[in-house]
Structure formats: C-alpha cells, structure tokens
C-alpha cells in the first residue's frame, strides 16, 4: 500500500512566499535605520543688554614735564688781597647809561599778537563745559543728562548679532570715540572678545547724533569719551 502525503500537511509548500515576505521586512527595517535622524533640542536664548549705570571714563595719561636740573652752586669767591693805603689803585670809571632828554625817542609800532589755534583735547571728566547731547539743552546737570541719553541711545539701537548668538559668543566691548570741535563723532576705537560684537558696537556709535561741542575757556575743543557695551546670553 502506497502512502500519500496530504498537501495541507506539506511544510515547505509556502516557503518561497515566507522568504520574500521576510526579505522585504528586513529591507524595510534597514531602510528605516539608514533614514533615521536625530535632532538636537533647540536652545531658547534670552538676550539681555547690560549697560552699566556708571559709565567708565578713560582719562588719557598726561605726559610728565621733565624739569631741568637745578643750576650748580656758585663758585667760591677768590681770595681778596688787601691793598695798603700807600699804593695807588686805579679807579674804574663807569659811564652813565641814562639817556638825556635831548635824544630822540624811538616810536614803537603796535605789536600784533596772533591767536594760536591749538588743537586741544580735554577729557570728559575735567572739561569745563561738557558736550551737550540733543535734548539736554535745558538740563541743570548736563553731564548726568549726557550719560542717560547715551544709555537710551544704546538700548534703542542695540541688536545682538545672529552669528554671535549661534556661536554662543558674549562679552564686554570697550568703545572709545572723540566728540570733535564741530560736534560730530570721530576716531572710533573698540576692543572686545569677538569681531561681530565689535562691529555691532561700531554701528551703534556711528548712529549717534551731532552734538553741541564741549568748551574749555570758551573755546570749542575735542572731547574723548569711552563707554562699555556688554553682550550677554542668558
């Protein structure tokens, strides 16, 4: 009697189908693994501007005047010889240098004194009449008003550079500039931890309005001024 296998009991009947399904599943998992991406959590920056209440004023060093050494002491007098009364001593006749009234008087023309236009530079801390910021003309304390208006100007025009935010750069930029004799801003210099922060500080100072120049003894002079600008990420 020949044994016949039941087709329902054939284990390898659908092996090819199972192989294709398994291969497709493995390919799908490999593809998902290759396409998997992980993103860093976004940092929320709290940008703050810190302008110090007391503005630092950099007073330039004055050159010390070298005084000449004192003159040497006078030499000791020579020994005076005593002359006896019997010997004749020649007298030295000194002629009078006074002029007589008959001599003509020379007329001296008026001497014209030219004003020397010195390019004076007086620090902000010691100048007699400080530069006047627009809006401080009627203030009783023009120096305090000047500092307050400088702070308002910086807060109004402050903008944190985006590239500095992305790099996490922060720090303090010291800015020095000169208020010229015509009230304009010139000779801007700065020193800070990053070029992007220095460029932003330069842009803020260049937007300063024209001022009434400072005066020393009634004459307009150049006035150097310095201010720190702090860039801080929190």
Automatic annotation (TrEMBL):
Q: How does it sit in the membrane?
A: Single-pass membrane protein
Presence of keyword Protease: no
Domain TonB C-terminal, chain residue ranges per copy: 145-234
Under the heading PROSITE patterns, the entry gives:
TONB_CTD (PS52015)
Pfam families associated with the record: TonB_C (PF03544)
The protein's matches in InterPro entries, at most eight in alphabetical order, are given as: TonB (IPR003538), TonB-dependent_transducer (IPR051045), TonB/TolA_C (IPR006260), TonB_C (IPR037682)
Q: Which UniProt keywords apply?
A: Cell inner membrane, Cell membrane, Membrane, Protein transport, Transmembrane, Transmembrane helix, Transport
State its location(s).
Cell inner membrane
Transmembrane regions listed in the UniProt entry: 16-34
NCBIfam families tied to this protein? tonB_Cterm
Q: Record's family? A: Belongs to the TonB family.
PANTHER family for this protein: PROTEIN TONB, PROTEIN TONB-RELATED
Name of the protein described by the UniProt record: Energy transducer TonB
Per the UniProt record, the source organism is Croceivirga thetidis
Its lineage opens with:
Bacteria, Pseudomonadati, Bacteroidota, Flavobacteriia, Flavobacteriales
């Amino acid at each position: 009697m020949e044994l016949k296998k039941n087709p329902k009991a054939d284990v390898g009947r659908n092996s090819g189908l199972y192989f294709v399904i398994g291969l497709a599943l493995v390919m799908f998992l490999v593809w998902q693994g290759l396409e998997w991406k992980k993103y860093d959590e976004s940092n929320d920056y709290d940008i703050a501007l810190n302008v110090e209440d007391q503005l630092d004023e950099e007073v330039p060093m004055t050159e010390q005047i070298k005084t000449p050494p004192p003159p040497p002491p006078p030499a000791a007098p020579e020994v005076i010889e005593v002359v006896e009364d019997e010997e004749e001593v020649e007298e030295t006749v000194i002629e009078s240098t006074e002029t007589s009234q008959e001599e003509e008087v020379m007329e001296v023309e008026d001497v014209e004194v030219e004003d020397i236009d010195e390019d004076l530079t007086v620090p902000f801390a010691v100048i007699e009449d400080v530069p006047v910021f627009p809006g401080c003309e009627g203030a009783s304390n023009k120096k305090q008003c000047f500092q307050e208006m400088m702070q308002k100007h910086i807060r109004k025009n402050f903008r944190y550079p985006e590239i500095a935010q992305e790099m996490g750069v922060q720090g303090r930029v010291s800015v020095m500039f000169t208020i010229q004799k015509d009230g304009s801003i010139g000779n801007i210099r700065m020193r800070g931890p990053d070029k992007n922060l220095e460029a932003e500080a330069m842009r803020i100072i260049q937007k300063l309005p024209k001022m009434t120049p400072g005066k020393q003894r009634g004459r307009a002079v150049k006035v150097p001024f310095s201010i720190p600008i702090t860039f801080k990420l929190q």
